[in-house]
Structures are given as structure tokens and as C-alpha cells.
Write a structure and sequence with these properties.
Elements (H helix, E strand, L loop, with lengths): L1 H41 L6 H6 L4 H13 L4 H11 L13 H4 L4 H6 L3 H17 L13 E3 L6 E2 L5 E2 L3 E5 L8 E3 L4 E9 L3 E7 L5 E10 L8 E2 L4 E5 L17 E7 L10 E2 L2 H15 L1
Antiparallel strand pairs: 1-4, 2-3, 4-11, 5-10, 6-7, 6-9, 7-8, 8-10, 8-11, 11-12
């Protein structure tokens, strides 16, 4: 009788043990799946390429980010990248940056841990390559009183069909063609030069990173500027003009005198062309040069 009772209890314990093992296995498997899912999501950022291209951070705000990065000894490009990601590359107009130290800097490590390095890397590389290789504003500060510019990226254009403006226009205040020298912002090689229907007389310079810097509507080219020539940051490549919007080479006067500056970035975020807003980077380098001069 005792043996029979013991045997029955043993079978019951065995049954519960198997059930417990099964439950623990399911829980363990669930935890593994949660871990994999969380890390998979960390490797994918839900940021639209149009937001990345528009990069609508104001001049004052990007300069403020740079100042704060120095204050807290954080690498500027890293901080700007995480700040951009946290704010969906600034898709909201007039972002309030007044509480950046309290809301962002004080939680910086936690914010960094939200994202995998793999997911952040292409955005970081994009920003760092541009900021590292742009060494000068495309116009000497000797001409600072003669030009004006704003964030015109995304504005509507109609010549050749409705499209958006994928660059920054730097205007001659007095609308005089040929008086303001245009200089290369970066080191690189001249990949394109000559007439373009939309861009008029233009120069395209490819940097070491693969980024392409486009200078359009020139009045004329600097002597000796030819395809394949290596240029250095600060080299004069041409003069501000109002050429373009015509199939006929040399056409002038279809718009006011200005430089159209475009930046096509080399990135693995897309296989298509990606022209990023130059305005924040122009603001940065211009501010840096003015501070160094004063």
C-alpha cells in the first residue's frame, strides 16, 4: 500500500515537474524573443529621408548645440547626431532649444543607450563628413557686407516642372554679376564644369568622402579651373552670377544674381541621390570664421 501511494505521488510530481519545465522553457524563449526584438528595433530608426535631407535646424540652434557640446566636453558631431535623431531631424518648425541642458544633456547617456551604434552610424558619418571637410564659407568674409542668405531648402521651383529647391541661395545684395568671387568650401576634385540648363555655369567638386559640392549660376569660371583639377578649400573657382534656366549656353538674367549651393551626400541610407540642406553647415562655418576673425 505504501509503495503504491509513493508511486502515485511520484507520478504526480513528475507530471508537475514536466509542466514546470515546459513553462520555464516558454518564459525563457519569450525573454530571448523580447531581447532579439528590442535589439532589432534598436538597429532600425524610423526617420524619413525627407526629414534627413531637410535638416531644418535653425542657425541659432545649431550654433547653440555646438556651444553646449564644448561646455560639456561632448564631441559636437556625436551630440548633434543624437539630438537630430531624438527630434526626428527637426521636422517640427521652431524647435524650442531653451531646455536642452535639462532635457537632453542631463539624460545624454540614457538617450545614447536607446539606440545601437549600428543604427546611429550612418547619420553620424553623414554629419561628421560634411562638418569635417567644409573648411570655409563659399564667399570670403571680405565680402560679408555684399551677400545675404537664408534657409531656402524645400522652397517651390517651377522651371522644368514643379520641384523643390535642394540647396541654399546666397544672394548678392546689389544684384551685380561677376563681382563676388566664389571659393571652394572643401578640398576635392572638379568632377563637373560647364553649362547646365538649370544651373547655368556650374562647378561640381567631389570630396574625399564622396560628397559632391555643387556651385551654380556662376557668371564665369576662374582661369585654370578645369575638369579633373584638384582644388583646395579657399581656392577661387568662379564668380557669382545669374546664368541658367535655359538650354542656350550663356543665358543670363532670368533671376537675381546669386550662388546656388548644393550638397549631395555619399551615404548608405539610400541608393538614390540625397541632397541635404546646406544651410545649417553654412551657418556653422560662417559663425566659426567670424569668431576667429574678431
Amino acid at each position: 500500500m505504501k509503495k503504491s501511494t509513493y508511486y502515485k505521488k511520484s507520478k504526480i510530481y513528475n507530471k508537475y515537474y514536466k509542466i514546470l519545465k515546459y513553462i520555464l522553457f516558454i518564459v525563457f524563449l519569450g525573454l530571448i524573443l523580447i531581447f532579439i526584438f528590442k535589439n532589432f528595433n534598436k538597429d532600425k530608426l524610423n526617420i524619413s529621408l525627407s526629414n534627413v535631407a531637410s535638416f531644418k535646424i535653425s542657425s541659432d540652434n545649431i550654433i547653440k548645440v555646438e556651444e553646449i557640446s564644448k561646455k560639456y566636453n561632448i564631441e559636437f558631431c556625436e551630440m548633434l547626431t543624437y539630438y537630430a535623431i531624438e527630434n526626428n531631424f527637426f521636422n517640427e518648425k521652431n524647435l524650442d532649444i531653451s531646455n536642452i541642458e535639462q532635457d537632453f544633456i542631463m539624460n545624454y547617456d540614457d538617450i545614447k543607450n536607446k539606440y545601437s551604434k549600428k543604427s546611429v552610424e550612418p547619420y553620424y558619418n553623414l554629419i561628421k563628413n560634411i562638418t569635417d571637410e567644409i573648411q570655409t564659407f563659399p564667399i570670403s568674409l571680405d565680402y560679408a557686407k555684399n551677400y545675404i542668405y537664408g534657409d531656402s531648402y524645400g522652397a517651390e521651383r517651377t522651371y522644368g516642372g514643379k520641384r523643390i529647391h535642394t540647396g541654399t541661395d546666397i544672394m548678392d545684395k546689389e544684384n551685380i554679376p561677376g563681382r563676388i568671387p566664389i571659393i571652394s568650401m572643401t578640398n576635392g576634385v572638379i568632377e563637373n564644369i560647364g553649362w547646365n540648363e538649370k544651373g547655368g555655369y556650374r562647378v561640381g567638386i567631389k570630396s574625399k568622402s564622396g560628397n559632391y559640392y555643387y556651385y551654380a549660376h556662376l557668371d564665369k569660371f576662374e582661369e585654370g579651373i578645369v575638369k579633373g583639377k584638384e582644388v583646395l578649400s579657399g581656392d577661387v573657382i568662379g564668380y557669382m552670377g545669374n546664368t541658367g534656366y535655359s538650354k542656350i549656353e550663356g543665358t543670363k538674367g532670368n533671376f537675381e544674381v546669386h550662388l546656388h549651393l548644393g550638397i549631395e551626400v555619399a551615404t548608405n541610407l539610400t541608393k538614390d541621390e540625397l541632397w541635404i540642406n546646406p544651410y545649417p553647415f553654412l551657418s556653422l562655418i560662417e559663425n566659426s570664421q567670424k569668431n576667429n576673425k574678431s
